[in-house]
């Protein structure tokens, strides 16, 4: 996918616009499966919350992926996209028991991360196999908001609660068919990951009926030049070897599962926005675009640094800019960034806009959500229309007031 293609898509479909490169999603998928080619049975469950457009789900289905879901609605989206229930794992946290029951009735793999829920579910549905999410208390990742394995985390059943967990399983006679961990996003250090994996193996030994071990995700992808990324190939080599040895000890071939979101779609995504104003102040030059944190919240929310390119003037002389959005409160995409000289009307391209970008967008300031386009074999395909005014008022129930401030309900 080239700069000129992106520029042409912004003309064809307008701005702001999300564009996803199918070839990049495919190559990341293949990279991951190649890294673990020595494992007899591998399952990739794409984490739907990263980017949940149905066409993206269908693309991943064609590649052979399953799905990792965290809400009943994501389960429904997956089924709607044509996934078999057996290819979907449901890993909720803090949801109602009724929602877990509803997912179980849809036939998806249930993953439980709380002892009280496990006890309740086991007592009521002893014959439905359940995976348990453990918390190995291994700290991975840089940003506190996306680290989920640490001691204060709300996720998973602590490995220190094993005796209690085993008692519940014994008392209910339930069938534990998988063990899961997800230590959080942005794993830099493979040794830390392997250390957490040992804890998962230790836990697994307590259960005789396992079918799979799920190592979650959290692979780090590069955001800017020279950024460190998880070395998937090295992780594949080391973990595959250890996993195969474990299966030997265990006496049965298990499936090794991962559930990457960011790794599969982050780099495939481009966010295009048009520069409305260039504003020289006493301290900086602002480039204000026709979007804001309503469409791409990660810089404001996590401090993430998306590389920004001026695709209307890619060869221009570089200058320093603060790139800001139009939301009426602090709305900064980037501070003091070197970008090729910007003129009003230019199109800026934000990189790594595939994961947690559109899926976290909102209508704040009563703006429409952008359109989404899939770039597939040299052509752009619209996969979500830009919102319009009807979308803003669709669910509103309007009451009227008469001249004496009486509410005159139409219902
Ligand atoms: C969010 C999430 C993932 C995906 O994480 P990435 O960092 O996007 O790869 C995987 N598993 C679970 C349970 C999650 O909540």
UniProtKB/TrEMBL annotation:
Residues 23-266 form the Orn/DAP/Arg decarboxylase 2 N-terminal domain. Keywords: Amino-acid biosynthesis, Decarboxylase, Lyase, Lysine biosynthesis, Pyridoxal phosphate. Residues 18-354 form the Orn/DAP/Arg decarboxylase 2 C-terminal domain. The gene is lysA. Belongs to the Orn/Lys/Arg decarboxylase class-II family. LysA subfamily. SUPFAM superfamilies: Alanine racemase C-terminal domain-like, PLP-binding barrel. InterPro entries: Ala_racemase/Decarboxylase_C, DAP_deCOOHase_LysA, De-COase2_C, De-COase2_N, De-COase2_pyr-phos_BS, Orn/DAP/Arg_de-COase, PLP-binding_barrel. It comes from Flavobacterium microcysteis. The keyword Ligase does not apply. It comes from the Bacteria. Homodimer. Pyridoxal 5'-phosphate binds at residues 218, 356. It catalyses: meso-2,6-diaminopimelate + H(+) = L-lysine + CO2. Pathway: Amino-acid biosynthesis; L-lysine biosynthesis via DAP pathway; L-lysine from DL-2,6-diaminopimelate: step 1/1. This is Diaminopimelate decarboxylase. Substrate binds at residues 298, 302, 329, 356. Its cofactor is pyridoxal 5'-phosphate. Specifically catalyzes the decarboxylation of meso-diaminopimelate (meso-DAP) to L-lysine. Pfam families: Orn_Arg_deC_N, Orn_DAP_Arg_deC. Its EC number is 4.1.1.20. GO terms for molecular function: diaminopimelate decarboxylase activity; pyridoxal phosphate binding.
